[in-house]
Amino acid sequence: MSAKIGIRHEDKYAMERRTPLTPTHIERLIKNEKLEFGVQTSPKRVFTDDEYRTVGASVAHTLEDCPIIMGVKEIPADFFEKNKTYIFFSHVIKGQPYNMPMLKKMIEKGCNLIDYEKVADDQGKRLIFFGKFAGLAGMINSLWSMGQRLKEQGYANNPFLKVKQSCQYDSLAEAKKEISEVGREIAEKGLPKELLPLTIGFTGYGNVSIGAQEIAALLPIKEITPEKLLELKKRDNLPSNIIYKVVFMEKHISKPKDSKHKFELQDYYAHPEKYENNFERFIPHLSILMNCMYWDNRYPRIFTKELAGRLFEQGEPKIKVIGDVTCDPDGSIEFTHKGTEIEDPVFVYNPHTSKPTMGFKGEGILVMAVDILPSELPRDSSEAFGDALVNFIKPIAEADFSKEFNQVHLPAPIKRAMILHKGKLTPDYEYIQQYL
Does 26 fall in a domain? Predict the structure, then answer.
């Protein structure tokens, strides 16, 4: 017999409007798979309660009758009920200290936890993600930020002023249309010579970076190598209607500490402690840095406070905006101390005082670090996410989680993503115990 599945109201952020399954997905699962759904009422979800009722889901204030509960972001510790199964982005796999109390509560309650972030195929490729939409929204926001920051610095008529924050568009298509128009204006009229060459750098080449590059491609872009970026400053009479794009791979970002050794990708992943920053030489040549790569504290930082201080000792640097889509607190961008909210998305970091000021004003480098970027495009991102998730729902609803872990029948990608089973860390995640 299939268990009733609940869709919870997102409450971590005021502007979190996403859902793991849209009414269209639920209609399909009710009609084709005879599944039952309960949806927690929400005044802000991008899809209304009535849209879910229309397709056959029940809508209520609680999900008490749902043994399986799905969400997007972290869940408050007092929400969990004994022996239930929860599916969401838990952000515990790095031992994140701010989520250990939540995980402890799930352990106390004997819960099962499946984390979307770990749903992957046999080669380790993630199957369910919002990452591309983080890149899409992050690039839109960074172009908007560029326009506002340039305005503060005296460029009152720069073309990027036409770009709005992602959440101000009704759809991704509307945002793309407007940015395409900005691209045409740059192609026809050019950019202020003081900003030339205008360059955008992307760290990483995964889903997040792909999304960011998709938006950048709406501008008059010419892609060059990191090595060519270093040579641009030596060229005179650069065209004013071209924006240069550079994608940085691991070998550009880090280098072996021992200069006798060559960069080897697998060695880098296995022994990151043997590597150091190789990215500082590129930063002075970038106008916008889109930080789209995976990072944890084993790897070298790419932009330190110390480097920011050195850049500003030499006067106003070229770099205007950092779109920190990666958004690791005190992470690869050292002065991103925390993620920002959609309602207050940017700050200016002052290297002289080592302090941020929210908004577009002040001396320093502007950082856009919204940590729920896909929620700025809630309808588009929820539809794409649900498309990837929908075929896993029936086997999850039919699984008997009361059995021993090795006897729970689930598709392999979902089974690999189960962090807790009956309140115990599963074998692949026992390492998290040290953080508890």
Answer: yes
